[in-house]
Every structure is written in C-alpha cells, then in structure tokens.
Amino acid sequence: MSNISPSTQPQQDKFPLINPRHSGFGQEWTIIGYFLGYFRRKQVKSTFILFYAVLAVVLWSYIPQAPRLFELDAAGKVVLNQPNCASFSPAERMIFLLLDSQQLWGAFLLFGLLPMFFVKFLFREKLSDYGFSTGILYRVRNLTLIFVPLSILVTWLSGESVHYFSTYPYNPWILGGNSSIVEGRAFLMIYFVMYALLYYVSWEFFFRGFLQLGTERSVGCFNAILIGTAFSTLAHLGPHPMVETLGAIGGGILWGFFVYRSRSILPSLLMHATLGIGLDFFLLYNFL
Fold this sequence. Notes:
Radius of gyration: 23 Å
Structural class: mainly alpha
Strand content: under 5%
Shape: globular
Largest sheet: 2 strands, antiparallel
Order of helices and strands: HHEEHHHHHHH
C-alpha cells in the first residue's frame, strides 16, 4: 500500500504539452518542442489566429492599389483609364497584368499561403478541418444551386452602378490594353482565373476557414461566425462603396452559416467569386 498521501502525489498537467523527445526535434530541441506543444491547446491556438488576423487585415489595408480602369470626369461622364500600350507586345502586356495584380498577390500571401502554412506546420492539422474540402457534399450542392444564380442576378443589377468604379476592376490591364471584351478576352480569362484562385480561394479560406472554423471550438459556432464576419467587413473599409461594406456584414453571417452547415468553404467561395467576377464582367459590358 502506498504511503504517499493524495495531497503529495504529483498532479497531472491539465493541458499536457507534447513530449519534446517525441516532437521530431530531438532532446537538443526541447524549447522548440515545448513551444509547438502550446498549439495543442485550443485557447492558445485561437489567440494566435486572432492576433494574426489583426496583423493580416492591417497589412492588407496598406497594399498599394493599381490605377482603376474606369474614372468619372468633372461632368460625371465615364472615362476609360486605359494604359498606353501601342508599343507593347502581348507578352509585355501579360507581365503588366501580373505586376499590377498586387491585391491578388497580397491576398494570396496574407490570407492563403501563410494561414495554410500555420495549419500544416504549426498547428499540425489538416486543411480539411478548416473547410478546405468538399465537406458535406449534398449540402454544398444544394446551397450552390440555390444561391449562385441569385449571386449572378445581384451582379447583373449592380453592374450598372458607377459607384464601383473606385474599387473594380482591381487591374487596369484586365483587357491587356484593349478597348473591348472581344479583343481582350484572352487577358480577361487569365485574369479571372487568377482572381478566383489567388484572391477568392485565399479570402474564403482565411475568413471562413482559418478564422471561423479555427476558433469555433473555443468561442462557439455563432461567435466564430461573427468573428469571421467582423474581420472580413473591416477588410472592406477604404475604397469599397458603403453599400458593399454593409453588405459584407449580412453576407459574412450568411456565408458563415453555410460553412458551418456544410463544413466546407466551397459554398461561400462559389458565391463570393461569382459576385466579384460577375461584377467585373458586367461593369466592362455596360461601360465599354
């Protein structure tokens, strides 16, 4: 029978850290092993996610913007701010298209690449746990079939408004320096693919996956939706029209609920990308 009283028995750590000897770093890397072990604690992980979200959104707001394609003159007439490209080859125009897409590259780095790195190598979790998967497929399918057509309708109605000129399209080389959709269709298609993959996949992974699903266990489902909505709305401040920023509140809550129900960012990604790409297309269609 043991003579050690319960009060003197060693207490088990309520939040055990990873054993440094089994952390993959060896005994000499004990400090790193213990540091990484903190990310097994869901509260500390959520704190890190929220801290990075503040940093990422602030940095995002300071990314330089390329000149906009459309402008309004003093008389309120639409003016095409087309780059002078008569002496440029198609290859040079493509380089300008890539270089003037700094907001797309910035979103890819801040909202996509770095958060995915944190999930895989810092948290050592699966991207699918953060919505980067097809999720509950039948719910994804139903939400997409219902709401993507509505998104197209919204962009068709919004594409006649000049209030979006200060924001969209992001890149003046969207048509490769051409003055019509037909002439610049190759550049337009390349830009839209970049827009969807670099910008919208990163945006939805960050706000609906990394932020929302990453903090869900700590703060609860609804609060996690509000956190993702708050940060995504703040990211709209600046050149975006007020109606769009206010719409980001309702859209963030709605898409956050879709992600919660489907366990996938796919519904919000398809709807958001449809809105953004569709708005660019209808602005070009209506004002060129």
